[in-house]
Amino acid sequence: MIDQDTRYAYKIFLNAALPLVKVIAGDIPALAKKFEKAHCIFQVSALDPDSPSGKVATHFTVNDGEWKVCADSVASNAMVELQFKSIDAFVGFFKGKMSPATLPKMKGAIKNLPMFLAFMQVLLKMSALLGAKAPPEDEETKVLLVKCFFYLLSSGISCLNKNGHEGIHGWALASPDRVYSWAVDGHPEVAAYIRVKAGKSRAGRGEYKRAMPFFTLRFDCLDSALGILMSTDDMMDATKAGRLIMDGAPEFGAQLGDFMLTVAAYAQG
After folding, report:
1. The whole model's pTM is what?
2. pLDDT for residue 269 is more than 80
3. Could you write out the DSSP letters of every residue in 165-181?
4. What sign has the CA pseudo-torsion 104, 108, 110, 116?
5. β-bridge partners, 139
6. What is the signed CA dihedral for 72, 73, 77, 83, rounded to 10 degrees?
7. Nearest-CA neighbor of 107 among 59, 39, 53, 52?
8. In Å, how far from its chain's centre is CA 167?
């Protein structure tokens, strides 16, 4: 039986981190080209004796470059699969604790070698992006990294709510219909949001356009966003200097910041 923190961590990887594979494969032209004529089902799984299917997984269906993400869903017909021997091994691997004990079994690798290698390139790129210690230098990579972080945070907070995390679910239960968003001035393509109402939540990508968000954590530029997202800048100092703008009451910014740190702790250890 896994402990509660491990459960939250693997749920975030299945529902918030692994879905970024689609974003990375689509936004980097050299990677997108590898899947232009692909027809394949990729899966990342972990054996789990307590699951009805004996494993937990997120899988991707790719047809001619079009990706469909099936988060926290097991495919019985995956053509390429990374299968971990346990949830603990799965979580350890994605937190960077690589060892013989955490390495996955590579199913379908020889039979579908080109697709396996392409999928591994995307996973390695995702790992490199999210594990970077310093901001990238080129603008395109900065855009992609901020987008990935925003998507991870919005989906991660929603995932923890849906899985009963005490602090986040309590906040969601008490919340009227509100939208919280992340944005960078001049870069609408990186925006993300989470809509919360009476215990329910839904993460979204892009700008929320049905109404003005209740609260937005807005940055003046990509570098300012990365300073906070990569923990190289202080939120209070950034706010005082105008690098971070809280469109709404500051107390909601502090609350959202705490939830962001919670997601980061489960995703990074």
Report:
1. 0.95
2. no
3. -HHHHHHHHT--SEEEE
4. negative
5. none
6. 30
7. 59
8. 20
